[in-house]
Specification:
2 copies of one chain form a homodimer. Chain A is mainly α and about 160 residues long. Chain A has a domain at about 50-130: Winged helix-like DNA-binding domain superfamily/Winged helix DNA-binding domain (Arc Repressor Mutant, subunit A), CATH 1.10.10.10. The first copy, chain A, is built from 7 helices and 4 strands. In chain A, the strands form 2 sheets. In chain A, strands 1-2 form a two-stranded antiparallel ribbon. In chain A, helix 3 crosses helix 5 (about 80-90), helix 3 packs across helix 6 and helix 4 (about 70-75) crosses helix 5 (about 80-90). Chains A, B: It comes from Sulfitobacter pacificus.
DNA sequence: TATTGTTATACTCTATAACTATA
DNA sequence: TATAGTTATAGAGTATAACAATA
C-alpha cells in the first residue's frame, strides 16, 4: 500500500520525485538522516581541525588511556592500517602520544596530552550544542526509542555473524 | 550522568572499551547501525551485481520514468558528475536507457529496460528479506517512530540551511 | 608461529572546476 | 548568459596483502 501523495520529495528548485519505494526501507531513512547529521558534525568539528574519525579516536583515547591501536581499531570498527593515518594526524598536532610499553614492545599505549584533553572538551561541547539544535524537535522518549533500535540492529548483526 | 557499567562494548576477542561518551551522541548510534545495515545491503545486492548507489538509481529511474540526470542527482543528493559513472554502469548492463529528448537536446530521459525492471523486482525482494531479518526484533510501532525521527532530522536540516 | 604496527595499494564515495553542446 | 551532461581530478573512507619487530 503506497501513500498517494505523502511520500514525495520536493527539492528546492526541482520537480517532485517519487521516493516511495526507497522510503519503505529503514536503511534508506537511516542513511539520509545520518548524512545530515554527519554534515552538521563536520561543521561543528571544522573550527577544531578535526574530522569525524579523528574526533572519535580522540574521544576513545581520552576515555580509555593506555589502550592499544588494535584495541582502538576494534572499538572503532576500522581496519588497523586505516587507523595509522588517523593517529598520525592526532600525534602530529601533539593531541595524543604513542607511548612504548616495556612489557610488550610491539604495542603502543595511546594517551591524550593536556592539549588533546582540552581540545576534546571544547570540541565535545560544540558537538553537543550542534546535535541538540539538530534534534530540537525530537523529544527525549523518541530519542531513547531510536537509540534502543540502533543498538538492537547492531546486536542482531553481531548474532547473525556467529 | 554516566551509567557505571552499561555503556561498555565487549568486542568478541578484545577487552572492554568505554564508549559512553560516544554513545551519548545519537549521530554515533546512527552511524554504527547504518554501517551494519549497509554491510547487510551490500551482501543482499552482491548476487545481482549492484551496489547501494546503483541500486538506488535503478529504483528511482524505475519509479520515475523519464526523469533527467540532474533531477536524479538532486533526488539522490549526489553531485551530477558522480552520477555519470553510476549510470554508465547501469547502461552498460542494459538495465537503463539514456533517451534523447527532442524538445531539449541537452537532457536525457532516463528509463529502465525490461531487464532493468526484472532486476529491480528481484533485487528489491532480496533487499526486503534481508532488512526484515535484520529488523526482526524491532516492532512496527518502534520502526515508525524511528522513521519519523529520521524525517524530522532531514527536515530540520532543510530549515536550518535557509 | 602469532601479534602489533606499518607500508603499499586499490576501490568506493564524494566534491569542485572546467569543458561541450545545447538553449 | 544559463543549463545538462561530461571529464578530470582530488580528497576521504575502507579493505586486503605483505613486511619488520617482537612475543
Amino acid at each position: 500500500m503506497k501513500p498517494a501523495l505523502s511520500d514525495k520529495t520536493h527539492k528546492s528548485a526541482g520537480p517532485i520525485v517519487d521516493e516511495s519505494t526507497l522510503q519503505g526501507f529503514l536503511g534508506y531513512q537511516l542513511k539520509r538522516a545520518f548524512n545530515v547529521m554527519q554534515a552538521d558534525l563536520t561543521q561543528a568539528l571544522k573550527p577544531h581541525g578535526l574530522r569525524m574519525l579523528t574526533y572519535t579516536a580522540l574521544i576513545l583515547i581520552a576515555d580509555n588511556p593506555g589502550l592499544s591501536q588494535s584495541q582502538l581499531a576494534a572499538a572503532m570498527d576500522v581496519e588497523r592500517p586505516n587507523l595509522v593515518v588517523i593517529l598520525d594526524a592526532l600525534e602530529h598536532r601533539a593531541l595524543i602520544l604513542r607511548e612504548r610499553v616495556p612489557s610488550d614492545r610491539r604495542t603502543y599505549a595511546l594517551k591524550v596530552t593536556l592539549k588533546g584533553r582540552q581540545l576534546y572538551e571544547k570540541a565535545t561541547a560544540d558537538v553537543k550544542t550542534h546535535e541538540q539544535a539538530l534534534l530540537a524537535g525530537i523529544d527525549a522518549a523518541t530519542r531513547k526509542t531510536v537509540v534502543e533500535a540502533m543498538l538492537l540492529i547492531r546486536h542482531r548483526a553481531a548474532k547473525d555473524s556467529l
